[in-house]
Amino acid sequence: MNKWKKKQTAPIKHFKRPTLAGDGIGGRAWFFLSRAVTNIRQNIFVNIVTIGTITLALLIVSLFLLVFVNLESAAENWSERVQVTVYFDKDLSLQDQAVFRKKISAISGVSRVNYVTRDEALRRFKSRLRGQETLLEGVRAEVLPTSFEIALKRTHRDTAAVENFVSALKRIPGISEVQYGEEWVRRFNAFLNFMRLLGALLGGFLVIAVIFIVSNTIKLTIYSRRDELEVMSLVGATRFFIQAPFLLEGLIQGVAGSALSVVLLFGLYEGFLQNAGSFLTFNPAASGLCFLPQEYIAGLLLAGAVLGFIGSLTSLKRFITV
User: Fold this and answer.
1) Among 76, 119, 132, 137, fewest CB within 10 Å belongs to which?
2) Residues 159 and 194 in one domain
3) Could you read off the pLDDT of 13-42 as tens digits, one per residue?
């Protein structure tokens, strides 16, 4: 009887939950990363298809981005031609030139002001009609107007800004006429706006597609391991402990897909430069064609990581509610 009582009153031992491989945040991160890699290995075909699809989607985005970056660069050069010309009926003295230059420069958006004399205007006409100089026989410099050529800052080259600038010029007394190629400016800005809109629509569509693809891939992985996840939930595993490997898996898929898309884009870019001479009449490299800047490449890698993470997160919210 005493022996039985002694057994009953013996202290109960408390067992601690085993720690993860390593201690602290680093050990937990390594454990979650190893679980994510294991998940990818166990579903290698599905993950290859997912990474390939992400690569294709981001390759389309990056290809369009490459075209847009070079178009923007070309547009920047073209936009320098957006200038306003102010004409006068008479020659201006140095004092008058200084007065008008000061008034014009006081208007917001002016980058450069250049005075063109009648003799300079005649020389320009002759250079433009080189080989047809007979058309200008008998034409004297006195019949041409003097003018100020005004270059605008980059931020003041859109249609509305140019129109406001011209309106301000016309209010200056002594100016006979103002010209700025109104139709060309409108078409140029309409083209740029169309390209920006097309890029936004295409980018938005591909973002949704990538999130959908990653989300469904993670769903397949979760579905194949639903029994294991249910047991983990029953033994007290926290939601973060269960979700973390899957979030890292989506992150890895996104980074791998974006990195492959950049590598493929660079290969296409180099291949185009090497073979463009056979079907183009100009050299793309000499014309200023360039690859994506480093900040755009970093943005693509970050975008891939974020999309992969979001895709995993959306699927986990539906399947894991512990």
Assistant:
1) 137
2) no
3) 443 444 454 555 666 777 777 777 777 777
Contact indicator for 88, 146 with CB cutoff of 8 Å: yes
Same domain, 235 and 302: yes
7 in a domain, yes or no? no
In a shared domain, residues 221 and 267: yes
Q: Are residues 119 and 238 in the same domain?
A: no
What does the pLDDT read at residue 16?
45
* Residue 174 confidence (pLDDT) above 70: yes
Report field, pTM of the whole predicted structure over 0.85: no
> Using 50, 70 and 90 to split pLDDT, how confident is the model at 259?
very high
Instruction: Residue 83: name the closest of 144, 145, 153, 146 by CA.
Output: 153
- Which residue, of 179, 211, 236, is where some domain finishes? 179
DSSP-derived secondary structure for 129-160: TTT-GGGGTT--GGGSPEEEEEEEPGGG-SHH
Which amino acid makes up residue 4? W
Number of structural domains (the chain) is 2
Which amino acid is it at 56? L
Residue 2 falls within a domain, yes or no? no
The mean-pLDDT minimum among 67-71, 131-135, 311-315 falls in 131-135
Number of residues that this document lists for the chain:
322
Residue 52 has pLDDT above 50, yes or no: yes
- How far, in Å, CA of 299 to CA of 303, rounded? 6
- Report the alpha-carbon distance of residue 198 to residue 149 in Å, rounded: 35
Alpha helix (H) residue ranges in the chain: 2-8, 24-42, 44-79, 94-105, 118-128, 159-170, 182-224, 226-234, 239-275, 294-319
Give residue 39's identity as a one-letter amino acid code.
N
Boundaries of domain holding 60 = 24-77+189-273+283-319
Coil, strand, or helix at residue 43?
Answer: coil
Residue 19 lies in a domain: no
Among residues 138, 158, 179, which one ends one of the domains? 179
